[in-house]
Amino acid sequence: MRKASGVMATAMAVVLLASAATLSNIQAAEPEVFVVTGVKAGDFLNMRSGPGVSNAIVGRIPANGQGVVATGEEKKVGSTNWAKVYWVSVGGWVSKAYLLPEGQARKTPPAAAAPESTVPPTPEPPDSTIVVPPPKTPPATKNQPELVLSCVGTEPFWRIDITNSRMSVNMNDGPRYNVPVTFRQTSENNTSIAVIAGEDAANKTQAYMQKVESCSDSMSNLSYPYAITALLNNRQVISGCCKVQ
């Protein structure tokens, strides 16, 4: 496996409580990657269980957060557009006013947002303290499959699939097991790096992930946006590439 290199940022799920506000129709689109914008240094962008500030906070993204993956599902509450996103394997809804496409962020130097001449939407206010609760398993959403961070490697061949609640390990010539996700956290000084871990009575897996410009599986022409190094049962270390599917 060739070593991944490049620009950084990470990603993923928690979902839906009812909102009292009137919502517009769901808009479906391909997943996109964003960075956080318009949030003061030291503050955080709330992730909520549903669109609207009346819903519970399920996570927070720092002001310099990167690798925020939007599912394409959006809803409008009042004058605010809300987007369903995943960040470091945790999902929730955020005000889209605080998201900037990753490609545009590379081309545009950071600048303070100018006030609008018309009445602006009421975006979700960021918080000044961080709370990272362990995610709860979200209820199944009709016609909305759960996003999976799919990771693969060669020599030996292996696959790890990570959802909001579980890690599935499949080694062609080794162990195969599923464990519940028990820990997830981004690096305090580099939000493009994160750790996701899972364990039960029999097995334990720790995955160290990084958003990169390109990761190659060395077997195809595919380019992956994430690199991973995993420790299996404190005995075996494997490295590979990941993508959201």
From TrEMBL:
Signal peptide: 1-20
Entry annotated with the keyword Calcium: no
PROSITE patterns attached to this UniProt entry: SH3B
Pfam families attached to this UniProt entry: SH3_3
Residue numbers spanned by region Disordered: 107-144
Low complexity bias locations: 108-117
Feature: compositional bias, Pro residues: 118-138
Keyword Signal: yes
Keywords: Signal
Gene3D superfamilies according to UniProt: SH3 Domains
Domain named SH3b: residues: 31-103
Protein name: SH3 type 3 domain protein
